[in-house]
Design goal:
- By secondary structure, this protein is of the alpha+beta class.
- 36% of the residues lie in helices and 32% in strands.
- The protein has a 4-stranded antiparallel beta sheet with strand order 1-2-3-4, covered by helices on one side.
- A hairpin with a 2-residue loop joins strand 2 and strand 3.
- Helix 1 runs antiparallel to helix 2.
- The N and C termini lie far apart (35 Å).
């Protein structure tokens, strides 16, 4: 059996290297999941992520495969508080 050579290896990139539209498919999928599992509209959160990615002000990373974002994480630190999100 021959090895498959055209599989793309996932890569980690800085969120500041992405455009907000790069995250759209994943954010839409995340929104549908939150709505169906928890009856919660995550639209405002998704809009914040898009806005901060657009101005390259969100610290974090994206997992990309085949030119698509398949996961992301970010963190926000303020004074003695921190927030981290992973998808």
């Amino acid at each position: 059996m021959a090895a498959v050579s055209n599989l793309s290896v996932p890569e980690i990139v800085d969120l500041r290297e992405l455009r907000e539209r790069d995250l759209d498919p994943l954010l839409q999928e995340e929104g549908l999941t939150w709505r169906s599992l928890f009856n919660w509209d995550s639209g405002a959160s998704s809009d914040l992520v898009r806005r901060f990615v657009k101005i390259q002000a969100l610290n974090g990373f994206a997992l990309m495969q085949g030119g698509r974002v398949i996961g992301y994480s970010y963190y926000v630190c303020e004074d003695r508080k921190a927030l981290m999100e992973f998808l």
